[in-house]
Every structure is written in structure tokens, then in C-alpha cells.
Write a structure and sequence with these properties.
Rossmann fold; binds 3-hydroxybutanoyl-coenzyme A; alpha/beta; lyase; single chain; eight-stranded mixed beta sheet; lipid metabolism; 3-hydroxyacyl-CoA dehydrogenase; N-(1-d-carboxylethyl)-l-norvaline Dehydrogenase, domain 2; 2-enoyl-CoA Hydratase, Chain A, domain 1; 3 domains; 18 strands; isomerase; binds 1,4-dihydronicotinamide adenine dinucleotide; 48% helix; six-stranded mixed beta sheet; peroxisome; globular
């Protein structure tokens, strides 16, 4: 049974039990509709308590159904039927009431909740807007200003705030259901208060709409749903509930069918699947509380910040006093900038710094459950670090390398504890970027691998397992993307046209702007090393630029010129002159053609990666691109794009 009924005197208790998250599947909707009729017809029942089994109320519509046409009964009709019930329905909420779950609760005459309950309309994250009256009932219950924040800006009040907003009528302690039944008994026989939809809400001052429109359009960065959610809300306030509900539903259905919404759903399920790979589900991760980080440069400092953020204690090991001071000051700078932006209080900042120990020499690694190495990208240096760690660390401590390109098997070769060794490849800035490539060697024990996943979860990262190859999943695709972008330039396409096309597609930066920001020299040195090994790597325009001293923004120019203190790229005649020997006759190419060429290249490399077993699934490749390389979320990733093209 997906919805159970129990009778307690005059009160019916309706429990939605549809694990794991009580989603409002077709069966749940049917059963709720039938129950609303049956309970209205039952003379012994005078009120209905509606709750969810387990840890949460209802996580919303069943997102897995969204790839099919909607099937009746539709959720708006279920909500309307409950709202029209002859007897009061009381939603009893613990945990999350999200999306359609909150809309269902809004259809009830009353809402009671625990203080830690959480209320949200997260539909915009799936490229849609609420589709069962949320944009209409919520403003009538909490007022327009608060409703805007919840509907279009992802604000998510807890039980206490919901009580203040009038979204819940009272807070109850656990056990929830007896408290809700007592509330129901108290309202039985009282004159029914207006339903959510019957309430009258004053129209806000005109500037509330204009300011919200400006704010939401700016933060949506091209995403369709947030401004349209606001529009539906506004329409209902200005033209009445009926018109509002009609616009909400038609917008919901139209957005649900878009490519953008399909892409966001694809990522929703991929992100969840990534956290719990089937083969590791039965394993217990090793306990990790104190983590050593060796190397406090760009990556080591970022990794330390991410670990501190997650409440772990850190021992940061550097090679000399100057490097320790530099790492400390980098971390203090990161905290200071969070503090300035109001993201961290002074107390939290000092508590974090108290969990940070710095050291020269390896003695302190003795206390570490895990040590992550982030020293120079040099095999000998890395091996010497792990040799030291092998001498000092406990025999059960896990050792991880953050190498970008070096084969982890070579790093671990011959060192003690190969089963405790793996790659944990963070992305820069490591305290921000969500991707964590997890790279086991053939010797890595499964519980060590499971610990890598558990760490990712604790850090709020998206873990993706990668096999061993040059660049792992992400840098390997990046290389083919950049090479193809340079091939377009060699074919006569304008540098700025390539960047503009990729920006229009949704990247924050095009490939050449990105190279200028990150520096052209790393890829250049990589190619030079390959050439030194006798590999036939032809000169690329980027090589000519580096040889001419144009390494990107840090040298005042790369593909573009930059004025001092201005990161906006300007067309560079110098750069064009330098690369001219490799560039063919000027060629106009439409933005869409540029995008499809670069997408095809990424997908082709992705297919090779899959065929070699480097990635376990196409969705993993999409997660790598979205969470490590700024691939636009609304496009779902290169493999998603390739799959959609295959279907059209
Ligand atoms: N529909 C279908 N499956 C869902 C789901 C939903 N609404 N929400 C979660 N799931 C699935 C997940 O895919 C996962 O499946 P898996 O075990 O096979 O991987 C499982 O439920 C557990 O989910 P999480 O791993 O995310 O569990 P957590 O405990 O970490 O989080 C949660 C629980 C906070 C409820 C989180 O899952 C969540 O935020 N869910 C989505 C909520 C949402 O976006 N709701 C709006 C839906 S759209 C809507 O309601 C339209 C309406 O307006 C008409
Ligand atoms: P970096 O040069 O900024 O920092 C390296 C740090 O290691 C320096 O502070 C140095 O003093 C320290 N160090 C060197 N030898 C040491 C030793 N024996 N003991 C203790 N400390 C030592 O380098 P970065 O960029 O932080 O890279 C570190 C590693 O992370 C490299 O393997 C790199 O390939 C990888 N990586 C880099 C990324 C990036 O975007 N910079 C992204 C992902 C991985």
C-alpha cells in the first residue's frame, strides 16, 4: 500500500508510504483522490491528519515520471480535491516538504510541523516551476515578498521560520502524529478557516516586482525557470487565482518538456547515483577525523579549506618556514573573504584556524587517518613524500595523491601499503569546485575506495571514479576540447568567435579566455615533454604564443591582450601575428556550427574513455564536465548532448 489509513476515534490518519522519499507517483495520487472521497463520505471521521512515513513528509512529484507525458489524476486536481474536502485536513510534517509535497500541504486546511522540518519549492533547480498551485497558494499564506524568495530564489525555511511566516499553524514535538491528532481534535467542530486559495493577499508595491525581476533575472544567468516562476506568481496576484493557476500549469507543462529540464533531471539522478555506487553500498568507510595535507600551494591550501569547512582537523605539511607562512596566509585570506561576504562569523573563522596545524617535517602525520599529497607534479618528489609517510603513518592510514597526470601506480610502486593508496583528484579552487575524481589502482582495497566516496560526501563534493589514463577523465577531455578549438583557429575561424559561441552555449568563458586565465604554459610544457620523449606532437598556435612570452593574463596577454587590472580580453594584433604561420584563410563559421564541432569532439573522447573502461558510465563523464570544468548545467553535459542529438 502506498497510502495507508488508520482511524483514531474521529480522526483519520493518512500516511503516504512510498520509499525512499514519498514521491507523489501516479499510484499515490490515485489513492489520495480516492481517500478524499471516501473520508468525506465517512460520517465517523471529522478530520484527517496527512503525514509521510519515515524521515520526511513528501519530496514532491515523482521526477522519474517527467520523461513521460503526465498521467491522470494530475497533482493540481488532487490538491484541489483535498482543499475542497468537507472536513479539515491537517498536514503533519517532519523532515522535508518539497515541491509537490509543500503544494499538497498547502491544500490542507492546517499545517503542523516539527521545528526542524524544511519547506521548499526547488522546482527551478529542475528547470520547471511549481505545477500544483505553489505559486498561487503560497503568496496567499505567507505574503508576496516571502513567497518570491521561496518560489523563485530557493529560500527554504525551517519549521520555526515557517511558523513565523504563517506557513505552519503550530510546531509539535516528536512523536509527530499524536501531536497532530491532538491538534485535529482541537479544531474539530470549529468553523472552518479560509483555505489557502481563499485567503486575500494585499498587492505589493510596484517596486517589489521590478526589484525581484531584476534580481532573479540576474542570478538566473539565462536559466528559464526562475523568471517564469516569478511571472506566474505575479500573474495570480494581478489577475486572480484562476488566471494564476492556469498560467502556472501551462508554464509548468511547457518547461517540463524542454531540453533544459531534461538535462537538469539527468544531472539530478546522476549526482545521486554518483554518491552511492552499487558495488560499495555494503561497505563501511574507515573513520576519518584528522587529515594530513602535504603541500600547501594552490591545491593543498584549497583542499585544506574544503576539509576545514567539513569540520575535519588538518595537519598541513610544507617543506620550509616560508611555504608554511604562505599557506597559512592563503587560508587566512580565504576565511577573511568568506567573513567579509557574511558567510562566516569571527568565531567560526577562529574555530577553523584552531583545527589547522601546520608543520615542517612529517612527525605530525602519525596522527592522521588520511594524508592527501599535493606537492609539485614530479614523480620523484611525490615518491619521496610517500616514502616518508610510509615511515611515519599508522599502518591503517590512507594515502592519496592529487596528481593531475602522473600514473598513481608509479607513485605507489614498491611503497608499503599499496591497498591503502588511491588518487583523490581535486579541482581548482578546491574549496569551491564540486568534482572529486577518485582514482583507485588495481591494489586499492574496496573499503579504502568507499572511504574516498564517504569523504566526498562529507565535503559536499560529487565523486566520480576514474580509471588510470593520461589526464584521467576530465583533463583528457579538456585536452581534446582545447586541441579542437585551436584546430578551428588554424582553419581560419576567429578566436573571439569561438569564445563567443561557447559563452552563448552557456560556458562562463570560451576556451581561449579560459586558457588565458589558467595560463597557456602548463599545456605547452606538457606538449614539450611529449616532444622530448620523441612523440610526434605538431606545433599548435598556443605553443607559438608561449614561446613569444604570451602565457596568458599573468604575462599581460595570451590569446588576447589585457590592460593592467582589467581582466576583460581585447583582440590582440600581436597574438594574431604570432600565430599567423599556422592559421589558414579567414573563415566565417556560425556559432552553432562551432558549438557542435566542439561538442562532437568532447563526446568522441568521452566514447573512447567509456570504451576503455576509464569511466563507468556516460553520466559520470557529464558530472566531470559540469562539476569540474564549468560545462553549463542546463545542457546536461557532453554525453547528454550527444545522446539527444542521436535521438533527433
Ligand atoms: N522523485 C523521484 N525520486 C526522487 C525524488 C523525487 N522527487 N527525490 C529523491 N528521489 C530519489 C533519488 O533519486 C534517490 O534515488 P536512489 O536511491 O535510487 O539514488 C533517492 O530518492 C534518495 O534521494 P537522495 O539521495 O537525494 O536522498 P537524501 O536523503 O540525500 O535527500 C531529498 C532527500 C532532500 C528529498 C532529496 O532527494 C531532494 O531534494 N529531492 C528532490 C526534491 C525536489 O526537487 N522536489 C521537487 C520535485 S518537482 C515537483 O514537485 C513538481 C510539482 O511542483 C508538480
Ligand atoms: P603548487 O606549486 O602551487 O604547490 C605545491 C606545493 O608543494 C608548494 O607549496 C611546495 O612548497 C610544496 N612542496 C613541494 N615539495 C614538498 C615536499 N617534499 N614536502 C612538502 N611540501 C612540498 O602546485 P599546485 O598547483 O598546488 O599542484 C599540486 C599538485 O596538485 C600537483 O600534483 C598538480 O598536478 C595537482 N593539481 C593541480 C591543479 C591546479 O589547478 N593547480 C588541479 C588539480 C591537481
Amino acid at each position: 500500500m502506498t497510502v495507508n489509513v488508520e482511524i483514531d476515534g474521529e480522526i483519520a490518519i493518512v500516511t503516504i508510504e512510498n520509499p525512499p522519499v514519498n514521491a507523489l507517483s501516479g499510484t499515490v495520487r490515485q489513492r489520495l483522490l480516492a481517500l478524499a472521497d471516501a473520508l468525506d463520505g465517512d460520517p465517523n471521521v471529522r478530520a484527517v491528519v496527512l503525514t509521510g512515513a519515515g524521515k520526511l513528509f513528501v519530496a514532491g512529484a515523482d521526477i522519474a515520471e517527467f520523461d513521460r507525458p503526465p498521467e491522470p489524476p494530475f497533482l493540481p486536481d488532487v490538491v484541489a480535491r483535498i482543499e475542497a474536502a468537507a472536513k479539515p485536513w491537517i498536514a503533519a510534517i517532519r523532515g522535508a516538504a518539497l515541491g509537490g509535497g509543500l503544494e499538497l500541504a498547502l491544500g490542507c486546511r492546517f499545517r503542523v510541523a516539527t521545528a526542524s522540518a524544511r519547506f521548499a519549492l526547488p522546482e527551478i533547480n529542475l528547470g520547471i516551476i511549481p505545477g500544483a498551485g505553489g505559486t498561487q497558494r503560497l503568496p496567499r499564506v505567507v505574503g508576496v515578498t516571502e513567497a518570491i524568495r521561496i518560489v523563485a530564489e530557493n529560500h527554504s525555511p525551517d519549521g520555526r521560520e515557517a511558523l513565523r511566516l504563517g506557513l505552519v499553524d503550530t510546531l509539535v514535538d516528536e512523536p509527530l502524529v499524536p501531536g497532530a491528532v491532538a491538534f485535529a481534535r482541537a479544531v474539530v467542530g470549529q468553523a472552518l478557516s479560509p483555505t489557502s486559495i481563499e485567503r486575500v493577499v494585499p498587492a505589493p508595491a510596484a517596486n517589489v516586482w521590478t526589484e525581484a525581476e531584476a534580481r532573479i533575472t540576474a542570478s538566473a544567468r539565462g536559466a528559464a525557470a526562475p523568471p517564469q516562476a516569478l511571472q506566474a506568481l505575479k500573474h495570480g496576484i494581478e489577475h486572480g487565482v484562476e488566471a494564476g493557476l492556469a498560467l502556472e500549469r501551462s508554464t509548468f507543462l511547457a518547461l517540463r518538456a524542454t531540453e533544459e529540464a531534461a538535462a537538469l533531471r539527468h544531472l539530478f539522478f546522476a549526482e545521486r547515483a554518483a554518491l552511492r555506487p552499487a558495488e560499495l553500498r555494503a561497505l563501511s568507510p574507515r573513520p576519518i577525523e584528522t587529515v594530513g595535507v602535504v603541500g600547501g600551494g594552490t591545491m593543498g591550501s584549497g583542499i585544506a579549506a574544503a576539509l576545514l569547512n567539513a569540520g575535519l582537523s588538518i595537519v598541513l605539511i610544507e617543506q620550509d618556514e616560508a611555504s608554511v607562512l604562505r599557506a597559512r596566509s592563503t587560508l587566512a585570506g580565504l576565511f577573511e573573504s568568506s567573513r567579509r561576504r557574511g558567510l562566516m562569523s569571527d568565531e567560526v573563522a577562529s574555530e577553523w584556524m584552531a583545527r589547522l596545524e601546520t608543520s615542517i617535517g612529517y612527525g605530525a602525520a602519525e596522527r592522521c587517518d588520511l594524508v592527501i599529497e599535493a606537492v609539485f607534479e614530479d614523480l620523484a618528489v611525490k615518491r619521496s613524500v610517500f616514502a616518508e609517510l610510509g615511515r611515519v603513518c599508522r599502518p591503517d592510514a590512507i594515502h592519496a595523491t592529487n596528481t593531475s597526470y602522473i600514473d598513481p601506480r608509479l607513485i605507489a610502486d614498491g611503497l608499503p601499503g599499496p591497498e591503502r593508496f588511491l588518487g583523490l583528484h581535486f579541482f581548482s579552487p578546491a574549496q569551491v569546485m564540486k568534482l572529486l575524481e577518485i582514482v583507485p589502482t588495481p591494489d586499492t582495497a574496496l573499503d579504502v575506495l568507499a572511504t574516498g566516496y564517504d569523504l566526498a560526501r562529507r565535503l559536499g563534493k560529487v565523486p566520480v571514479r576514474s580509471g588510470i589514463c593520461d589526464g584521467f577523465i576530465g583533463n583528457r577531455i579538456l585536452r581534446s576540447y582545447r586541441t579542437e578549438a585551436e584546430a578551428l583557429v588554424c582553419g581560419g575561424v576567429d578566436i573571439a568567435a569561438v569564445d563567443a559561441a561557447m559563452r552563448a552555449f552557456g560556458f562562463a568563458m570560451g576556451p581561449f579566455e579560459m586558457q588565458d586565465m589558467a595560463g597557456l604554459d602548463i599545456a605547452y610544457l606538457y606538449r614539450e615533454a611529449a616532444r622530448a620523449r620523441g612523440m610526434p606532437v605538431p606545433d599548435m598556435p598556443g605553443d607559438l604564443l608561449v614561446r613569444a612570452g604570451r602565457k596568458g593574463q599573468k604575462t599581460g596577454g595570451g590569446w588576447y591582450d589585457y590592460a593592467a587590472d582589467d581582466r576583460r580580453p581585447k583582440t590582440s594584433m600581436d597574438a594574431q601575428r604570432i600565430i599567423a604561420p599556422l592559421v589558414g584563410a579567414k573563415k566565417e563559421m556560425a556559432g552553432e556550427a562551432i558549438v557542435s564541432r566542439l561538442m562532437a569532439t568532447m563526446a568522441e573522447e568521452g566514447h573512447a574513455i567509456l570504451a576503455e573502461g576509464i569511466a563507468l558510465g556516460a553520466a559520470d563523464i557529464d558530472l566531470v564536465e559540469v562539476h569540474g570544468y564549468g560545462f553549463p548545467r542546463k545542457r546536461g553535459g557532453p554525453m547528454f548532448q550527444a545522446g539527444r542529438l542521436g535521438k533527433t
